[in-house]
Amino acid sequence: MQKFMPKExxxxxxxxxxxxxxxxxxxxxxxxxxIEHNKGLIGHSDGDLVLHAICDAALGAAAAGEIxxxxxxxxxxxxxxxxxxxxxxxxxxxxxxxxxxxxxxCTIVAEEPKxxxxxxxxxxxxxxxxxxxxxxxxxxxxxxxxxxxxxRGEAMACHAVVTIKI
Length: 166
What we know:
Layout: E1 11-24, E2 28-30, E3 33-35, E4 39-41, H1 49-61, H2 67-70, H3 83-96, E5 100-109, H4 119-130, E6 137-142, H5 148-151, E7 155-165
Parallel strand pairs: 5-6
Antiparallel strand pairs: 1-4, 1-7, 2-3, 5-7
């Protein structure tokens, strides 16, 4: 009789990471939000490394791969795709597995621009995409102490942890 009982959901966590070079003449899109800056992120998509890291973390938590499998940089038909479109597809994939995102925690690593003035706007943008409530979304930034490509303002990185119920 037990096999007819509904399966109890468990909580799983996934980790995501992304890094992109920066260049003048590109828009800076972070967490689905355009941020005013003199440089943006280079990428096959819009370069939104926040959404890329979050999507990879969510897929990892569900043991469902990573976004490069579904949106490879070799596919010219998706060049310039909005990362919000990618995020919506990841949410569909989670739903197919009867999984839902419970919490997002992400950290930008960058020297510029200063992110603190954008924390709440990015959190609201992320909530607009993932619909899990502001109290379940953490967004913060750290500098790279002038070290390496990130420290010279040539790149940005993002780390993300996502918890899901599945």
